[in-house]
Structures are given as structure tokens and as C-alpha cells.
Predict the 3D structure of the following.
Amino acid sequence: LINRYARTNPDIRVRAVLDQFRTKAIRGFQITGSPEQVADEIIAIVDGSGIDGIMLEPTFGGPASYEAFIELVLPILIERGRAGTPEGATLRERLSGSPRLAPTHRAHRLTATDASAEASVTAPLAAAT
């Protein structure tokens, strides 16, 4: 962890590193570079801090950032034994046994292409404003 901050300031003190970590690590670390560089940096952070997972939050690029990570960085992490292969089941499937909402769930009737359902959801919001 100290080496991460010392790259830009070789004279940095441990107290300053801890202060910066407290303020910057809340939102995470911003990592940019080639897929290999990003994988190396993730591994260094995990090894240096002892964390057991990461959460992606694209700063720039929106959904394309997730796709790039999955297609370019994740295979490197898997190859290096630092990430598992996808289990195949989503959290919903593991909890409920189904990839879809139960028919009794109030959002079951909504789909991304159901314009009438979308209108019924947005109309009350528009009327309330």
C-alpha cells in the first residue's frame, strides 16, 4: 500500500499514506492502463491490503467499461488464478431457483419492452411532480 503512494511521492510518510487511504479508499482506487497493467494493479492492491474482492465502478465509459473489464482484464485474472470462473448462476437463481421474478412479485409483469407497463409505472411519478 505504501509503495502505491510512494510512486508519486517517494518521501511520503506512513501517516500521510494512511490519511490518503482513509479518504481515497472510500470510493476505491482508480486504475487505468493496459489490461495487463490493470490486472497487475488489482493483484497488488489485493495482496497489499488483504481484501477478498473488488467492486467495479466505471469512472468513464459507462457500461462499456464493464464490458472491457470482463473481456480484457478478467481473463488475465482467471489465467493467473486470481479470479474464479463464472459459476453460471446469478444471485437471483441461487436464492430463488429461477432466473425470473416469481409470478407473485409485483414487478413480474414488467419487462424492458413492455411499453404499457412502463407507462403505468412512470405516469404516477409524472403526476406527482
Remarks:
- Residues 31-86 form one domain.
- The chain is about 55% helix and 0% strand.
- The two ends are 48 Å apart (CA to CA).
- The first helix runs from residue 2 to 6.
